[in-house]
Amino acid sequence: MKSFKHYITEVSLSKGWAHKSGKMHIWRGIQPYHVQFMVNNLSKFGVKESDVIKIITKRFASWDVPDKKKEVIEYLRGLQSGREDVDHEIEMLVMKKGWCRVSLEENYPFIGGIDLKIMHAVGKHLDKKYPKAFKDIRNLELHIFGTKPAPGMRSSGRSRNIKYIDNAYDWDQWLKKGGDPDRLGAGRTEIGSTMAQFREDEQYIKEVFDKPYEWGVKQRGSLKPTKPHMEGNFKGITYKFFPEGDGYGEVYIYEYDIVGPHTTVIPGSPQKQGRAMEMHFAIDVPDEEGGEMSGEITGGGNELRIFATVLDIVKKYVKKNKPDLIRVYGEKKLVGYSYVVGSRLKLYEKLVKRYAPKLGYTYGGKQYDTDVGSGRQKVMHLYRKGFKP
What we know:
The protein has 389 residues and is of the alpha+beta class. Helices cover 32% and strands 26% of the residues.
């Protein structure tokens, strides 16, 4: 994944102030701090130094200091020099005028303002000016600053309510709809955000599924039947693809007779001779010991492109070999002491419904429990058009 540094600058931090009208003051580096830049450029924000001094004076009025006036000036100079690096109460002077403190740093991006409506306007301007900055967003924070001090803090420590946007799709949806970003993911679990993409944004799906990773044949004929129901004129092939990062993925395609020399019956499967195909895939997960293959796709924001790659491989295989039956397996999710249909299986079913007709297949319309995978799996059946189960 390209870092934010690649898109904007070769520095570690870009931050500043952005106004709901689109005006911005963005700089690079740790300093000046937000409040430091503000108090040194008050005219840019339509604020007077006397307004700042008034807040500091009121704050110091109850403090036990020998020379309050001197302390006020010293504190102001500390803000201007950067000795004092945070003062949200003083920043509130410009936030109330529609300004937001922003950070475009890759690992800690945030927008901070007094309400979501203003932050939404600022977010749209930021996205327009720096469109690639939010392309691979992972952990954007929206800081809503209140007008009262946080519990147990002095008056300069304003309370904050933090909202989170943890993927580029939700960021796009929030820019379109505004409001509370928490509601964008209401009721989602596991890869629910990925599922929401399929429900709500057809163009997004089309763009992602047009960009599978590079892949190629790794081995032909090296796979062996892994389950009894695969016995019967078996053939297998392994494909390899390369997601972003250091790992890689493998797709295993197994093809065999529907009715073979075994007694295993896959629930819902037709007992009519023909050729069956199933596919499984795994991702190499790097770790300190070198990595291991896993069937789980987690994090990294590349779930859809991995599915797109698997689908592309399957599409090419099916077009050439035309199996009569395609079996699609999915793991159930452990909840308490029971395995239930989770969001991953629901996602698979959505993919099946969407893409089976394009491959020339009809979805049987039902998920069946199967002993494959020790009873923790469901299986769906896709029938080639012209093949009657």
